[in-house]
Amino acid sequence: MKGIMKSLAVTMSTFMRRPVTRNYPTVHRELPERDRAFPLLLWDQDIDEPFCTGCHACERACPVECMTVLMKDNPAHESQGGTSKRRKIVDEFWIDYGRCMRCNICVEVCNFEAIAMNNTWQGHEMSVYDRSDLVMDLPQLMAQSKADEIQEWVAD
Fold first, then answer.
1. The CATH number of the domain where 112 resides is what?
2. What is the value of pTM for the model shown?
3. Could you read off the pLDDT of 109-153 as tens digits, one per residue?
4. 88: closest CA among 125, 50, 60, 47?
5. 70 - beta bridge partners?
6. How far apart are the C-alpha atoms of 43 and 141, rounded to whole Å?
């Protein structure tokens, strides 16, 4: 009898508690400050060109080889009458998000701070029906940075 009363008490306490579910598509949980989703490229708003020079450091350091980088001469370099100090810039850049393991190594090895981990909900919700839709090219990788939608991390 004592066991039955204890089980009924547990059942009633669970019954009286508030629900823990969320209305997911409309209400998101708070993302941790240092959360990381997938890598993306950053856009230099001052010079109006990507920070990436196409140096291949991220491509060489990637343990799953999900990146492909091609570089070109910068047409806006000072030697050609432009305002940029970067001799080379990225020409083509692809990241296969289907293979990426979000290890953050590409961000750490980048000498130009051109790659960041996406810390917004758009970086997490990457559901697609076809895996080829997870291969992101240069305009897709820089879209959020160009629109200034990336949240800055606050250093402790």
1. 3.30.70.3270
2. 0.75
3. 999 899 998 877 776 778 889 999 999 999 999 998 888 877 665
4. 50
5. 92
6. 10
